[in-house]
Amino acid sequence: MSRYWSDAIRDLTPYTPGEQPKVDNLIKLNTNENPYPPAPAVVEALNNFDTDRLRLYPDPDCGVLKDALAQYHKVERHSVFVGNGSDEVLALAFMAFFRQPEPLLLPATTYSFYDVYCNLYNIDYQQIPLTEDFRIELSDYAQPNGGIIFANPNAPTGRALPLNEIEALLQRNTESLVIVDEAYVDFGADSAIELTRRYDNVLVIQTFSKSRSLAGMRVGYAIGHKDLIDGLERVKNSFNSYPLDMLAITTAAASLQDEDYFQQTNQKIIDSREWTAQQLEQLGFEGLPSATNFLFTRHNTLAGAELMSFLRSHNILVRHFNKPGIDNYLRITIGTQQEMEALINTLKQHPAL
Fold first, then answer.
1. Residue 117, C-beta contacts closer than 8 angstroms, at least 6 positions apart
2. pLDDT tens readout for residues 54-67
3. Which strands form 104-107's sheet, in the order they lie side by side?
4. Can you tell me the distance from the alpha carbon of 303 to that of 282, in angstroms, rounded to the nearest whole number?
5. How large is the average pLDDT for residues 92-98?
């Protein structure tokens, strides 16, 4: 710890990303990456990219990508903001909207970057407990607040809220911003983007990392009322005018062209998810209903940490959260069907299974 660190940094507990080991023959089911390659249109765009352009700065407005997203989601271009992964979009949103007199409300069990941002930006926040079956109960958020944020589907639980419950929240909560983080929405939940056309206090954030297989390109975006987008642009341009490089802009826009491929790969992941959930149940696991590309599950008798270590010893990585209330659960990313079969076959080798 350097003596030159500011007090805020000394006291900060950073977000811990999923492990990215460099090991051969590893089945990596710990970071919710897509097991399938990007769309063919992405490959074509990369192959045809004019590398001479790389000597120039990228478009600070990311116009090509904003136009593509506006057309895809049937919204106005001024309703679209893009950034370096949804994590950056979230970070800018926290900075732009949530430094308020009242606390930010967020689920007690959710994406762990939220409280990191709060601590980084000195934002007062209050964690709202989930129900006993790990659901977000939006009626619990009917209290004074400086904003509300939740992931839908939630992470790491995988549970999704119906759109009518989100709209009911917007009708009750009219004086502060609601952010819906939809990193996993394409795997079985309903997007709240349509609500942004009727409510000016909701911002929907999505990513190209999960369902579009572009985690390595770092592309995220937000959709909301023009005034919200203007606020994000103001913060972005005070921080980094060029958040996306040319390749990221080009590949993300290209991926939106291949709708058939997008739907086919998502359905393969959904099918493997349901097959895996059924197989795990037969082995004594109980899990939550998932609308994501992962399963959140625990065994009836075996500890989560012990199962994680056992799988790791067989070159299979899954995520374990050593946190109260969920410390016996594993979050298992859905890989290819062959990878999920290898997971099940390996678990069957456990002496207690």
1. 90, 91, 94, 123
2. 999 999 999 999 99
3. 80-83, 220-223, 202-207, 178-181, 148-151, 104-107, 125-128
4. 17
5. 98
Residues in the chain: 353
- Taking only the tens place, the pLDDT of each residue in 318-353 is 999 988 899 999 999 999 999 999 999 999 999 988
Phi and psi for 83 in degrees, rounded to 5? -155, 180
Q: Is 180 helix (H, G, I), strand (E, B) or coil?
A: strand
Concatenate the DSSP letters of all residues of 82-118 into one string: EESHHHHHHHHHHHHH---SSPEEEESSS-THHHHHH
Sign of the CA dihedral running 140, 142, 146, 150: positive
Q: What is the DSSP letter of 128?
A: E
Residue 32's nearest CA partner among 305, 334, 272 is 334
d(CA 284, CA 263): 32
Q: What is the DSSP letter of 161?
A: -
Domains of the chain: 7-37+259-347 (3.90.1150.10), 44-255 (3.40.640.10)
Question: What phi and psi, each to the nearest 5 degrees, are found at residue 26?
Answer: -100, 135
**C-alpha distance from residue 180 to each of 13, 79, 116, 222, 308 (Å):** 24, 15, 17, 10, 31
Contact 43, 254 (CB under 8 A): no
pLDDT in tens, 10-44: 878 787 776 677 667 899 999 999 999 999 999 99
Measured CA to CA, the distance from residue 214 to residue 39 in angstroms comes to 9
Predicted TM-score (pTM) of this structure: 0.95
For 44, half-sphere exposure in the C-beta direction (CA atoms, 13 angstrom radius) is: 8
